[in-house]
Amino acid sequence: MPGGERTTALPRAPTAFPSPVTRTLPELQWTEGRQLRKATLERRCVLGSAPHCDIIIVDPTVSRVHAEIEPRDEGIWIRDLNSRNGTFVEGVRVESACVMHGFTIRVGSTEVVVNYQNAQQQAVESWPSERFGPLVGRSPSMRELFATLGRLGPLECSIMIQGETGTGKELVARAIHLASARASGPFVVVDCAALSETLIEAELFGHVKGSFTGAHQTRVGAIEAADGGTVFLDEIGELPIGMQPKLLRTLESSTVRRIGESKHRPVNVRFVTATHRDLLSMVNRGEFREDLYFRLAVIPVRVPALRERTEDIDLLLNHFGGGDLAWLTPKVLRALENRPWRGNVRELRNFVERARAIGPADAMNLLQDAVEEREPVTAVLPRPPDSAQMRAAAIVASPASVPPYKGPDAPSFTQPFRAFREQWIGYGERAFLRALLEQHHNNVASAAKEAGIDRTHMYRLIRKHGL
Hints:
The chain is α+β, with helices and mostly antiparallel strands.
């Protein structure tokens, strides 16, 4: 039976106050028909043609969820979300790019101009304490996150926590729960990645005795167990596509139906989800429902990676070490601050445990070995001259294709091995499917039979790769 953890309410910290630091909010300009449209970028936004997008562009050549765009100190960062027609900056197709004032972004057939001339200034909120519930941090990015969580905690809206593996997304979820009016209610965790497709429905919604083989007794589901509190769905990106409509119905109706029952039971829960996956790109590939995404991500929250807040490392070391840091010298601290920390805070915590057990020198050697195993392989590949690329020399961009492989799905050699392997597998799947479908003249049943896979799975792969 899912555990409903009862927690103590979080003592209210002092109200977050505006910091003297300000953020520049640039303006986007584009034309629809003969009408000039403008949008001020206040935060990370989703741009597309779907009505739920933050910036809606009415253009049939723009994907429903086309690109993600975010104002930063160095300029606007835009990231293509596996859109149909791609994203272009100054004529160069990009996966991601930093765009400066006066540059043009093209999505579909619409050109969007970045304008900093009329930019507004917004004060950046900063939490006045180095702690927020179970979270610790003194860096500006964490203080800003704490202020955001303090503002969102009392609300009832669904929150999606995004961040790399090991950044502490579950702790963020707990902090949100503790800062809410539901703090005295249960906090129930469901790891969507740890459950098989056949078990996850029973885990979420429960079942009655005899409803299926092995159902020896009635069991309450996680959502029902969280009644009056918060249910945290970790790794929501792993939720099977067949389960997503059922979760959406629960979100919209505030009811659950146990397997084997006909009646719906009312529930009063708040949903907090987390993922390290790119759900917006999954939406475009048909792997995650668009309506479910926007229902869960009413407010998205991003947890910064450890390498983005290295000034927190000494604070975290003290937190994990319990004050027993006789081994921590200034030289060791400098070395730790220069690490890439791809495993983020979890990797740092593991390092502290090893350092206390075997000493800092041996722990550093083990850390070095782990870094070398993950170090990206860089290949210098020739590129033909491109006037548009020369014109966009100020763009910090990741091109959408890398020779000698052609097409937007070509694998990049300038990334960690694990990411390269996943991209290579996807590239191979697409190439295999194209060749197979061409050989069978797009007869899916015949192609699936030769490949030795189920026809439904074949259709899923075709949708995934946009074939």
